[in-house]
Amino acid sequence: MIQKAGTDDMNEKLVQEIVRRVMADINDEGGADGMHGVFSDMNDAIEHALKAQEKVRVMTLDQREKIISAIRRKTNENVETIARMGVEETGMGNVGDKILKHKLTADKTPGTEDITTTAWSGDRGLTLVEMGPFGVIGAITPATNPSETVICNSIGMIAGGNTVVFNPHPNAKKTTIYTINMINEASLEAGGPDNIACTVQEPTMETSAIMMKHPKIPLLVATGGPGVVTAVLSSGKRAIGAGAGNPPALVDETADIEKAARDIINGCTFDNNLPCIAEKEVVAVDAIFDELMRHFEEENGCYRASREIQDKLIATVITPKGALNRKCVGRDAKTLLKMVGVDAPADTRCIIFEGEKEHPLIATELMMPILGVVRVKDFREGVETAVWLEHGNRHSAHIHSKNVDRITEYARALDTAILVKNGPSYAALGFGGEGYPTFTIASRTGEGLTSASTFTKRRRCVMTDSLCIR
Fold first, then answer.
1. How many domains, the chain?
2. Are residues 99 and 220 in the same domain?
3. Which end of the chain is least crowded, N or C, by CB within 10 Å?
């Protein structure tokens, strides 16, 4: 029983200790506010992830795959809820496309099948190279694809035997917390441990710094803008950086122009241009320029902006300091036009205009359905222009051409992690194209499209003069 008389300081300390113990009990059962994997302190989140990783690392691949299967199932069960949460919290994108993105992530993100063994057997014995876990991975996630990135990263990292601590973008913390809780619920339902994915209730720059500097986190994974990628690359730790891009789409005179127009607008407007791989500008040779613009306008719901409207858009979507206006990122074309006083038709999908490559709405990665089109005299100038527009990010680029030699030349010149030929940009993620999806495309650090194998380290095991049974 707590005494009152003359013991105010002691009483306060005792109350604080009781609260601390209660919170610890809550955390042991699944985190703050009863949410699995969610903690008030970043150090607590890391410690619980460490305990969970001790269990995950000794699991068989079959046991890990059961957890991953449960994550896939629960994602599909909650797909509409997560999609709506993301749009409502961030104000970016649209529910329909986010549902498609989540289904793609749930169904096609590689799991334990990506964890392989290399073996050499010969006269001097047997050598194996295995993929082993790093441990607890520290991950920073964006507001543009918050839940998709968390699900995709969690599947890959868990498949490799890791657990993960996320520091999400503050503008998407509710959606991220919901997703992390769901992932831990899936693990528990599959017989796995709690806290395989953890985070904090209030993510900040400070919690990010704690995570990056923590001695028990050997690998950092950042998905976001150039600032956050630079931060993790300066941490002194192994880091995977998925940064910015400004993907150009080149169209030459050999292309199927009608299909090219359709593919470009479909890719550019998908989730209101939030994917970093989406077409951000078009480079078109003079011979087909007018035809391409006609298909954009007449068949694909494009509004052609006058110079006056372009100037108003520049003043609206780009701040005086040159940054993007966050209120415009991920908004649909009709909303953007309304911001500049244009009452566009209801079926307006994209804003297009002709401009020089230096135009602010062309040279800047906007992440909104505004598509500037640069006219060039021929393919060679088109390649030079596309290289300039991509800004050396080596992220993504697209081309519409039936000339294989030109496609090859373009691919070598751009040298990007992703190149889509004669299709919409989202084909790169296995949506209408072959291959697997990812929402962490590490162009800057060279891993490209990350998957489970990316989040493992190689271990060589050698048995000399034995176990070769030829």
1. 2
2. yes
3. N
Q: Minimal CA–CA distance to 248: which of 380, 360, 351, 386?
A: 386
Tokens of 206: 């400070």
End-to-end CA distance of the chain: 76
One domain for residues 387 and 402: yes
Are residues 138 and 284 both part of a single domain? no
My answer on whether 232 and 293 are in the same domain is: no
Cα dihedral 51/55/61/63 (nearest 10):
-110
Shared domain check, 182 and 150: yes
What percentage of residues in the chain have a pLDDT greater than 70? 93
Confidence of residue 448 (pLDDT cuts 50, 70, 90): very high
Does residue 419 register a pLDDT over 60? Answer: yes
**pLDDT value at position 53?**
98
Upper half-sphere CA count for residue 212 (Cβ side, 13 Å)? 21
pTM: predicted TM-score of the whole model, two decimal places = 0.90
Does a structural domain hold residue 198? yes
Name every residue whose Cβ is closer than 8 Å to that of residue 454 and which is 6 or more positions away in sequence: 156, 240, 442, 447
Tell me: do 146 and 268 sit in the same domain.
no
Token pair recorded at residue 387: 């290289």
Contact predicate 101/129, CB 8 Å: no
Three-state secondary structure of the chain: CCCCCCCHHHHHHHHHHHHHHHHHHHHHHCEHHHCCCEECCHHHHHHHHHHHHHHHCCCCHHHHHHHHHHHHHHHHHCHHHHHHHHHHHHCCCCHHHHHHHHHHHHHHCCCHHHCCCEEEEECCEEEEEEEEECCEEEEEECCCCHHHHHHHHHHHHHHCCCEEEEEECHHHHHHHHHHHHHHHHHHHHCCCCCCCEEEECCCCHHHHHHHHHCCCCCEEEEECCHHHHHHHHCCCCEEEEECCCCCEEEECCCCCHHHHHHHHHHHHHHHHHCCCCCCCEEEEEHHHHHHHHHHHHHHCCEEECCHHHHHHHHHHHECCCCCECCCCCCCCHHHHHHHCCCCCCCCCCEEEEECCCCCHHHHCCCCCCEEEEEEECCHHHHHHHHHHHHCCCCCEEEEECCCHHHHHHHHHHHCCCEEEECCCHHHHHCCCCCCCCCCCEECCCCCEECCHHHHEEEEEEEEECCCCCC
**Are residues 113 and 199 both part of a single domain?**
yes
Contact between 427 and 87 (Cβ < 8 Å): no
Nearest-angstrom CA–CA distance, 174 and 89: 7
